[in-house]
Design a protein that fits this description.
Among the domains are: 4-155, Methyltransferase, Cobalt-precorrin-4 Transmethylase, Domain 2 (2-Layer Sandwich), CATH 3.30.950; 160-232, no CATH class; 409-479, no CATH class; 483-552, Arc Repressor Mutant, subunit A, CATH 1.10.10. It has 21 helices and 23 strands. The strands form seven sheets. The protein has a six-stranded mixed beta sheet with strand order 12-11-15-16-18-17, covered by helices on one side. Strands 1-2-5-4 form a four-stranded mixed beta sheet. Strand 22 and strand 23 form a beta hairpin. The longest helix has 18 residues, at 519-536. The protein is flat, with a radius of gyration of 31 Å. The N and C termini lie far apart (91 Å).
Length: 559
Amino acid sequence: MLNKSDLIALVDRLRREPYETEWLEFKENWYEPQVIGEYFSALSNGACLAGKNRAYLVFGIDDATHEVVGTSFDPYTVKAKGNQDLLIWLSLGLQPNVGFETHIFDHPGGRVVLFEIGGAWDRPVCFYGTAYIRVGSSRTTLAKHPDKERSLWNRRTDWTAELCERATLDDLDHDAISKAREQFKIKHPKMVDEVATWDDLTFLNKAKLTIHGAITNSAIILLGKPEAASLLSPAVVKISWILKDGQNRELDYEHFGPPFILQVDRVLQRIRNLTLRTLPSGTLFPQEISQYDPWVVREGLHNCIAHQDYGLRGRINVVETPNSILLSNVGSFIPGDVEKVIRQDAPLEVYRNPFLAEAMVNLNMIDTQGGGIKRMFQAQIKRFFPLPDYDLSQPDRVAVTVRGEILDEKYSRLLMDRADLDLWLVILLDKMQKKVSISRDDHKRLKDAKVVEGRYPTLLISGQVAKMTGQEARHILERGFNKKYYLDLIVALVDEHGPVSREKIDELLTTKLPEVLTEKQKKSKVHNLLTELSTSGLIRNSGSRGHPQWIMGNKPVSS
């Protein structure tokens, strides 16, 4: 702990800096909680890029002259969101929590509050899910500066490449090594004869699982005996398979430790990959098909292993429900956006565990080009099944759901009949069947491809596609009728049964409006129809605004 004289000396040293830097910020008497948290993130990340172990946010200093002016700011009494104590709220928001210390003391020039913040060291530091950085005198999101973000990731140490000091060759599983040899020969067919002459240690060195014969953490993860997992403590190396019913009740479970090269197939054996027989009609579609493509599930699980942040001490989870499989690992999604990965169609520039990833490439578990996600999407398209759903809502967790059911027959039939659609259009159609909103530009792309119609944001399959896929009747129900039909219905109701309440009009039209509209959209549609009739003078409201009673207006109804 620093005493008062140490703190005064530290502040005076910081004041001698010619200007504020990416790891140093001066404030006078301002303490907006959200912005303080953003500065914590920005300064921590800046300290890492500057090679500093610490960053500093100092209150009571003029940021232009660096003179001590004093502050009345008290971080122990200020409340943050939800009336939480500021310091607790700040601590909970830092991900990962690099830690900070709070010093309040009297400098000869006035009262000073000094936050001493740990520098980022193995990944960008976020504040409630967003990473920040200082650029010049401005604080901004790190995502706007990918070069700095890459630099932060590249500065981290690769835990998977570190030596497992207590491990020996005897801690590796013999069957796992044999499996690794088989996969290595598949990946490197020109080296088959050479591999046969290598002893185990030579093979492990060549496969990049050991370093000069020393066992790495990666070797234990992929090839270690189950009991060898304790050698990696406090890191957790475990895959948990959990079976749940339709009400989310747990029915069964099993945990799998090393060697992961063998355990992935054992996890797949636990999954009930049923044969589906109730599928869309049509001679082009198989009458029977398994719920899941084993390659898709295996690829997803291999990705979890390769990108797991083992330092967070979490498990890889495989949660099976009657109609889906959820695969999740701890650690942020480094590319930031799944759709960006698919659209760029380029190798990842940064890996969380480069040593482990290279070993898995050599053992034919993942692709060095990083195209696994795109191929998972393409595999689901070939089966006419919904595309994988990635959930990146939690900053330190990646989850992907693989569905084992048909959601919308129209979507499947459309994929059968329109093999010319590119991957991005199929992704947009998949969002359409899942009722996920899309942008205006993407809406236009689908309309230009003549697969949908409707005014944004409403989407429905086009008449051309409906005829192609035998969905003509459903198309008419979803599209609805022209506006005059609805206007005439309202006028007829008011003319014969007026005065009429809004509830009666809703009752008349709700079942006749397009099925694709939500209840809120239907009510809005009825409101617009009533407004048009009222403005034209055909009907009028004889009641109040809150309780309207519609009667005929002064304008005669045209025959």
